[in-house]
Automatic annotation (TrEMBL):
This is DoxX family protein. It is found in: Membrane. The chain crosses the membrane at residues 112-134, 146-169. Keywords: Membrane, Transmembrane, Transmembrane helix. Coiled coil: none annotated. GO terms for cellular component: membrane. The keyword Transmembrane helix applies. Signal peptide: none annotated. It is a multi-pass membrane protein. The keyword Transcription does not apply. It comes from the Bacteria. It comes from Candidatus Kaiserbacteria bacterium RIFCSPHIGHO2_12_FULL_53_13.
């Protein structure tokens, strides 16, 4: 007898709740975690992110993002599709630029922590949420790069939280909270 209900399709059950898909999620999780860890380690070793000049790199990133707003479309405003929306530009100016040192450290160390947690399979759903949240903010700031791919992978890891950490610490931690993956 299968462990899924009639309302649940075979495919979502396999991909998001069955431990049979856990090796696939292990590969996705470690890859995404490695990308985060590399990015974070690069930042914490850079004094413009964490150190004597802390906040300088974040300030430069935000100033670059502010140049991608609608007000820089003056020559042809009707045809302009800015990379950064005006509401997000207000947030960048008033919240991020007001606290660059604190937020620079939070981004750098947050990337390291998300990377380590995903690699170890520690609270994968929560770790993937924070990684996706950072990716979402990077994309809102006009930075594309690999962020859309990591964002989608993070969303999928959040959906597969019950099995994504099966080959990791979640295999031992989740049962403490009464959560067990399905077979």
């Amino acid at each position: 007898m299968t462990s899924y209900t009639r309302e649940e399709s075979v495919y979502p059950h396999f991909f998001f709740t069955s431990t049979r898909s856990s090796i696939m999620w292990f590969v996705v999780r470690v890859y995404v975690g490695w990308i985060w860890l590399e990015a974070g380690l690069e930042k914490i070793q850079n004094p413009a992110w964490v150190g004597d000049s802390s906040g300088a790199a974040l300030t430069g990133f935000v100033q670059g993002a502010l140049k991608k707003t609608a007000e820089f479309c003056a020559p042809a405003p009707a045809a302009c599709h800015p990379d950064v929306q005006s509401w997000y530009a207000v947030f960048l100016e008033n919240a991020i630029l007001a606290n660059p040192v604190l937020l620079s450290n939070l981004v750098a160390w947050g990337e390291v922590l998300v990377g380590v947690a995903l690699i170890l399979g520690f609270l994968v759903g929560i770790s993937a949420f924070f990684g996706s949240f950072m990716n979402f903010n990077f994309m809102l700031a006009g930075s594309v790069s690999i962020n859309p791919y990591l964002f989608v992978a993070g969303i999928l890891l959040m959906l597969a939280w019950r099995t994504a950490g099966y080959w990791g610490l979640d295999r031992f931690i989740l049962p403490m909270f009464g959560r067990r993956p399905h077979s």
